[in-house]
Design goal:
binds 6-(5-methyl-2-OXO-imidazolidin-4-yl)-hexanoic acid, alpha/beta, 317 residues, TIM Barrel, binds iron/sulfur cluster, ten-stranded parallel β-sheet, binds S-adenosylmethionine
Amino acid sequence: MNFEQLEAVYRQPFFDLLQQARATYEAHWPERDEMQLCTLLSIKTGGCSEDCGYCAQSARYSTGVRAERLMEAPEVLAAAHRARENGSTRFCMGAAWRGVRAGTAKFEQVLDIVREVSQLGMEVCVTLGQLGGEEAAQLKAAGVTAYNHNIDTSPEHYPEIVSTHTFQDRLDTIRAVQASGMALCCGGIVGLGETPGDRLKMLAVLTGLDPAPESVPINCLMAMPGTPLEGQEPVDIFDLVRLIATTRIALPRARVRLSAGRTRLSPEGQALCFFAGANSVFYGDKLLTAANPAARADLALLRALDLKPSGLPAAVG
Ligand code: SAM
Ligand code: DTB
Ligand code: SF4
């Protein structure tokens, strides 16, 4: 869908939009009462060379996040086991890097980690920054299911948020991921000072990707103290619901993940997002460095809404 088409969908009367999104969701997701639970782990925290204005892990801002070394495989594996025991079916590992290069010791260590974690039968997602064809092929061979690389906002707004790499750099990595056959997890953040139009321009880029992204994380900015965006106001809940609904309509088969920022949403607000077609969340008390709702609270919310965690793929059980 192009920008004009997305705008026409987005600007419908609120309940018409919700109804269209719900119908689209139910037509494409027979398991409509299932919520995918994903657990995040920061395998390399802080000290990043990039200047993404929202990020607590950039070395350029004093955020209180200390630079740590890349975790060893056994530590990561233990966390992955815990995630699976707690009901997650997707394990997402993040690293605060500009990117990775084949043949380096750190990349080899990541490949080792992936080989081990992929034995557990969960979907394995990594987000390591920029990469090329060789790195993507090696990650796929090691057992990565999906690579997360967000475009974050519209092409126009991107330079307001990041100066150390370009929107085109993001698209180049996305191309390499897609060429490797890994699934692409690609979405963005709301609350970066962008307009609703910027959000739809971001969505136009996402819907133009071929193949379409397998999953689309919609993050609400976690305004991290010390970052340039620490003072940003949260986005209006109805604007967020409209965006989720429009994403569901534009990308019917994608998992739409209500990602960072749920700590600032009410249960009722989240319920509207789920009704509009969000069918995945990050589960567990921590995102990468920021807080996430307590696991107990999330399970209570799912129960209240008669939703159930989606199961592991049948082969693994
Ligand atoms: N360094 C890699 C990169 O930038 O692609 C991977 C890790 S980075 C933390 C992954 C994504 O997390 C970012 O693209 C952004 O969408 C999201 N993110 C980071 N900080 C955030 C924040 N404070 N609030 C919401 N989302 C955030
Ligand atoms: C994504 O879109 N959101 C996740 C995941 N991909 C890597 C990260 C959210 C990070 C929130 C801020 C933090 O924890 O520092
Ligand atoms: Fe580094 Fe990724 Fe944070 Fe940007 S978003 S500063 S690239 S960790």
